[in-house]
Specification:
Distance between the termini: 14 Å
Number of strands: 2
Strand order of the largest sheet: 1-2
Mean pLDDT: 76
Order of helices and strands: HHHHHHHHHHEEHHHHHHHHHH
Radius of gyration: 24 Å
Largest sheet: 2 strands, antiparallel
Structural class: mainly alpha
Length: about 575
């Protein structure tokens, strides 16, 4: 099978080989495959959001601190981001369907381990393995889409992929909250098992066994440096608000490691410094390997394409605002306003409805430039966040959030379904696979940073304002005790009793007043977090203005042309099927 036969991307002009004429939609076989590819994608996406719903009851059951809760959420994103590119290359080498099924199996096994977790540390470890499974699923799905569809049908397939992400991210927590209310927090993970079985069976029946191809070889040093850099980045951001950004203000214990608060530089600062060193080493190592014509994990020359560079930054900062807020709103509604997981998601339902309304519109209007949808979507997201900040109140009606969240959800549907397509528009067809991996990595890094930064905002507001709020309601409580109680709540809002004796020593009659003070401070923190989340999305809007509206003319040159196939039709057996995956 020639390399040209394996190329999955349409040539300039939207035609494939000698065939002409646009296809409005994928062929029926491709549509059926899209269903199961969408289900596999849903598995990976909903576990980045459904855990937000279950986190308060998980924290109470396992005694998680706020920092540990962040790792339950962010640890998944860290391994997902660090392994996406490597697994994308493995899909090319060993076969896309094979990697997809392997990823689903690992993901399902880790989901079972999460449900059976006896401790917070075990749960975090299982979430890391889950992220590795998801890192195999997502690039395999993208590669299969690229290998199956041609011409305008490829754009339709990517729009469907974007719709799946938007709707799964928004509706997943609603379904998860119903399961958590009915069966406990373990159901948020156990629901993955039957879905995984269906996805595997569907993949075996509807997706061709695409033959693997020769790889350029591994880049173990690049993979290790990237993983170390991302882990240190997220750890530093998670720990800094608690242990100090520069000077150690509180001792830190990580397994056998004890970092005292004796005036030393904080462990968070050293972690962030180590992140800079590791990522600088990664970039240097990749540049040297590329100069010596050795295999690299990342083709750094892609960053010389202005639209890809700016679009990838836009993807990162958009994820920073979007996913960080999805982590905090359920916490505010469940802890601050006392709602059950299901009732909290009913309040957040307009976000899902907005995405469900807007995302399919982009697929029905394929002639509208992706950049246009992105600009409209990001503008609506900013407007929705600003209006939501005005609507968040410790005593106001929660239904006042409905309209802002609907506006926000419509914006998410427009932006998330088209931002990746706009970012890749100027990338040569032969390099779209790796560029897709880089763009997906940027999204996951942004989500992990967003959760850490916005959680730090809320935690900081709680620590600063709670002593005053408690003092207003319990003036007889000594100042040092108010501060200690506030610190315990800021460290673990869902289970402040886990913060030590300060909260446990409170008389029962003081608990209602403490709860009222917490509601006020948590509303203030969430309101500020919504405003902070709007800033990177506004920055992404400015970056998106520089994205190309149309694919640039490649000019004279050997842009590879894929094997001839009817535009919009799946590749035939002679083109892509192997001898058994």
């Amino acid at each position: 099978m020639s390399s040209e036969a394996e190329l999955a991307y349409p040539p300039p002009g939207g035609q494939s080989g000698g065939a002409s004429g646009p296809a409005a939609a994928p062929a029926s076989a491709g549509k059926i495959a899209l269903v199961f590819l969408g289900l596999a994608t849903t598995l990976a996406i909903i576990d980045a959001t459904i855990v937000n719903v279950a986190l308060p009851p998980i924290s109470r059951a396992l005694g998680l601190s706020l920092a540990a809760g962040e790792w339950v959420v962010s640890g998944y994103g860290v391994t997902l981001a660090a392994l996406l590119i490597s697994f994308g290359r493995l899909a090319d080498r060993f076969g896309q369907r094979r990697l997809l099924i392997a990823g689903i199996v690992v993901f399902a096994g880790a989901s079972l381990a999460c449900a059976l977790a006896p401790s917070g540390a075990f749960l975090v470890g299982a979430r890391l393995v889950q992220g590795a499974g998801a890192a195999a699923i997502l690039p395999a799905v993208l590669s299969i889409i690229n290998s199956t569809f041609r011409g305008p049908a490829l754009g339709v397939a990517f729009a469907v992929y974007g719709v799946t992400i938007a709707v799964a991210a928004a509706l997943g927590p609603l379904a998860g909250s119903a399961l958590v209310d009915a069966f406990g927090w373990q159901a948020a993970f156990l629901v993955n098992l039957p879905l995984a079985v269906i996805a595997i069976a569907g993949a075996l029946v509807t997706i061709p066994a695409i033959k693997g191809r020769r790889s350029d070889g591994p880049d173990p040093l690049g993979q290790v440096l990237l993983l170390i850099g991302l882990v240190l980045l997220v750890f530093g951001l998670v720990e800094a608000p608690r242990s100090g950004w520069f000077r150690a203000i509180r001792p830190t214990d990580i397994g056998p490691l004890h970092w005292p608060a004796d005036g030393r530089v904080s462990i968070a600062f050293w972690s962030l410094a180590g992140c800079v060193i590791a990522l600088a080493g990664f970039i240097t190592a990749e540049a040297l390997r590329q100069r010596r014509s050795r295999p690299t994990l990342v083709d750094l020359s892609l960053l010389r394409i202005p639209s890809f560079r700016g679009g990838s930054i836009a993807v990162l900062v958009v994820a920073l605002g979007e996913f960080g807020l999805l982590f905090l709103l359920p916490l505010y509604l469940q802890v601050g306003r006392g709602l059950s997981p299901l009732h909290a998601q009913v309040v957040l339902l307009p976000t899902a409805l907005g995405s469900f309304i807007s995302a399919p519109i982009t697929a029905r209007r394929p002639n509208t430039p992706a950049r246009t949808w992105v600009l409209i979507g990001l503008g609506l997201e900013v407007a929705g966040l600003l209006l939501a900040a005005l609507a968040i109140s410790p005593t106001g009606s929660l239904w006042l959030l409905s309209a802002p969240l609907l506006v926000y959800g419509i914006g998410v549907g427009f932006a998330i379904s088209q931002l990746t397509a706009a970012t890749l528009l100027a990338v040569p067809f032969t390099r779209i696979g790796q560029a897709s991996g880089l763009s997906s990595t940027a999204r996951q890094v942004g989500s992990a940073i967003g959760v850490a930064v916005l959680t730090a905002v809320v935690s900081g507001v709680l620590a600063l304002t709670l002593p005053h709020q408690i003092g207003r309601r319990l003036p007889q409580l000594p100042a040092h005790q108010r501060t200690a109680v506030a610190a315990a709540i800021a460290a673990s809002p869902a289970d402040p009793a886990a913060g030590g004796q300060a909260f446990a020593a409170l008389p029962a009659t003081a608990r209602p007043a403490i709860a009222q003070a917490t509601t006020v401070s948590l509303a203030d923190g969430t309101r500020l977090a919504a405003l902070v989340a709007a800033l990177p999305i506004a920055l992404a809007w400015m970056l998106a203005r520089r994205l190309p509206a149309e694919r640039p003319d490649p000019g004279p040159g050997p842009e590879p042309v894929p094997v001839a196939a009817p535009s919009g039709a799946p590749l035939g057996a002679d083109d892509q099927r192997g001898t058994g995956d």
